[in-house]
Automatic annotation (TrEMBL):
Job of this protein: Catalyzes the reduction of fatty acyl-CoA to fatty alcohols.
Thioester reductase (TE) domain: residues covered: 12-282
Lineage: Eukaryota, Metazoa, Ecdysozoa, Arthropoda, Hexapoda
GN (gene name): LOC108565621
Similarity field: Belongs to the fatty acyl-CoA reductase family.
Organism: Nicrophorus vespilloides
Protein known as: Fatty acyl-CoA reductase
Catalytic activity, EC: 1.2.1.84
Amino acid sequence: MEEFYRNKTIFVTGSTGFLGSMLVEKLLRSFPDISKLYMLARMKGTMNLIERSEEYFKDPVFERMIALNPNYYEKVSWIEGDLTMPRLNLSEDDMAIIKTVDIVIHLGASIKMKNPLHEMIKNNLFGTAELLKICLDNKNIKCFMYVSSAYSYARKSCSRIEEKIYEPILKPETLLDISNALTNGELDEIENVLMQDWPNSYTFIKTAAEYHCDTFKDQMSIGIFRPGTITSSYSEPYPVWVKSKAGILGAIILTVTKVLPSYYVDKKAMSHAVPVDMTANALIASTYDVIQNKSKDTKIYNYTSNNNPITFYDSFIIATKNKGTSIITYNYYWNAIKMFTLLYLPYLFMDIFRYFTLQKPKYLRLYEKISDFIEAILYFNNKSLIIDNDNLENIWDTLSQHDKELVPFDLRVIDWIDYFNNVPYGIEKYYGIKMKI
C-alpha cells in the first residue's frame, strides 16, 4: 500500500476536524512519499493560512509525525475555500489544482444534528455538489471518496443499514432547487413533513448527498465511507487522543463533570464505536480498494464494531466508573421530568439571581445547549440498528501482514473495558477538562 500512495496528490476537505486531523497525521507519518497533500480551509478570524497552519500543527496529535518527518511541511499546501459558497469560493489557481489531483477525500461537513434543514442543505449537500462539479474536469482523478456516516439511512422505521445506495424521498437536485426557491423560514415550515421518518436533518441530508455522489459514478470512481460513532484513538499516534465532544464522548464529559442529572438510554442499543485512528486507517484502505478494483459501481464501506460490539450503556458505565448508573433513565418522560426539575429550574434561579445582581444571565443558554446535545444523540442511544460491514472485513482479510501493520483497523482486537476505562484520561489530557473519576 505504501508503494500505491507514493507520488500521489491528495485533496482533503474537513482536515481540521477530529477524523480529518487524524487522517492528515496518518498520511504524513506513514505515507511520507505522497507527492502533495492539499487541505481546504476557511478563513479563521484575521489569521492567514500560514498562521492557521502553524496553529493546526501545534496539536499534540502531530508530535510523533513531526519527529519522524520533520520536513512534512514541504508536502502540505493549504487552499482557502468555503463549502457553502459557489465553486467553493476558490481562486482560479486553486480550481486548477483540484482539477489535477489523484485522490479527493471529502470529509468536510457540519455534524450539528440540530441544525435546521436549510443549513444542512447548505453545509452538507451544496458543497458536495460543487466539489463534484469541479472534479468532473479532472481527467487524472482516481477516486472521489465521500465520507458519510453509518447512520446515513438511520430512519425511525429502519432496523438494518446495508452497504448500498438508498434513494432519498427527494432527489438532491430537487432539494437544492427548493433551497434556492424558498426562504429559510419557508423551508423550515415544511421541514417536519419532509423529515417525518428521519431523526434529524443530518441523517436526512447524508442520504441525499450519497445518492448525488452515486450519479457521478460513470464519470469517476466513487467510494462512500460510512464510519460509526467515532471515539478517542486506540493506539495511534498515542492512545486516547481526542478532539471531539460529540456522541458518547459528550455524554461522558457531562456526566463525569457532574453536569448531567439524567441520561436516557436503551441498554440494548449498540454504540457502533470506532476509534478515530482505526477509522482513518480504514478510510485509507477503502480509498486504496476503490482505485485497485476500478469498479464502475459506487463502493460502500460501512465501518462499525459489529463483530466486537459494545452498547452505548456499557461504554458509558465503563467510562464513568459506574458513576453513570445513578443517572441512567429508561423512561423518556421520567427523563424529561428529571432534566426539568434537576437542571432547568436550578439554572433558571441562578439566572434570576444574576439578573438581580446586575450580572449577565448565562445558565439558561447553557441549559439549551445541553438539552440540544442530549436530544441530538437521543435516537442513537435508543435505537437498535444492525449495520452491515462486509466490504471492509473483506479488505482486511486480503491485506498482507505488512499492510495490516501499516493501517490496522480490525476492531476485533479491542478490549472495550480497558479502552473505555482510559477514555476519560484522554479527555482530561487533551481537553484540560477535570474528570472527577
